[in-house]
Amino acid sequence: MTNPLSGPIAKTVGKALKGLMLDVTYTDVDVQPRPTPDVETAYSCKGYVASFSDYFRNSPRGSQVPDDTRIVIILANTLAVTPKSGDKVTVNGETLKVDKAETDPATATWTLQARPTV
After folding, report:
1. Does 21 or 72 have the greater pLDDT score?
2. Shortest CA distance to 75 belongs to which of 42, 108, 112?
3. Which residues are CB-contacts of 12 (< 8 A; sequence separation ≥ 6)?
4. Angle (nearest 5°) at CA 85 between 113 and 17
5. Of 93, 114, 95, which is closest to residue 27 (Cα–Cα)?
6. Which residue has the higher pLDDT, 108 or 6?
7. In the list 28, 30, 102, 117, which could disulfide-bond 39, CB 3.0-4.6 Å?
8. Fold of 8-116
C-alpha cells in the first residue's frame, strides 16, 4: 500500500521551498570489490546544511553523534536516487560523507547526518 501522504504533501513542500534552497550535489557511491575503483554518479538537487542544536547535543541521543556531524536537508522531489550511508553530498563547496539518511512520512525531504570527508 502506498503512503497517502507521499504525493500531494511532498509536491506542495517541494514547490514551496525549492526557490529558497541551495544547489546541492549528491554523489551516489557504488562500492566495488577491490582493486576496482568505486563508481560515483553525481546528481543535482536542492537543500541546505545546518548544525545540530545545543539542545540536541546535550541530550542522551545527541551525545552519541560525533561533534563534526552536520544535518543536510534535501528536497526529495529534486533528488533522483534514494540516499544511503556511504554516499557524499556537496553543499557550498564542502563535501560531506553520509552516515545516516531518513525521510519524513510524506517523503517530502531527506534528512542526512553527514561528516566532512577526510
Report:
1. 72
2. 108
3. 108
4. 50
5. 95
6. 108
7. 30
8. Thrombin, subunit H (2.40.10)
